[in-house]
Prior knowledge:
Shape: elongated
Helix content: 25-40%
Strand content: 5-15%
Number of strands: 4
Largest sheet: 4 strands, mixed
Radius of gyration: 18 Å
Number of helices: 4
Amino acid sequence: xxxxxxxxAAPMVVRPRRAAPVLVCRKCLKRSDEGRAVRRALKSELKxxxxxxxxxxxxxxxxCFGLCPKKSIVVASGTSLTRQEYVLVAESDQVPRALALLxxxxxx
Length: 108
């Protein structure tokens, strides 16, 4: 008996209405003394820098990146991961510069 052709739809490409997510190591956040303050600073900074007509980027907690710095939190984005780069944040006042680095704004 011949196989029936699949009736499933072809894969689609969709563009979200928000900026690309920022990834943060959950383990680093939990271990760091500044974890709670850095998380709060990341969320508020992402909300403050949303573009007109779009939603702010999501802050996504991830599993370990395998870097495990002693006193910092590992942060990444899709852009930084394509460059194979991670940003280490030790204090909440470093967050604006860290987000600029994630988005490849080297002069910010």
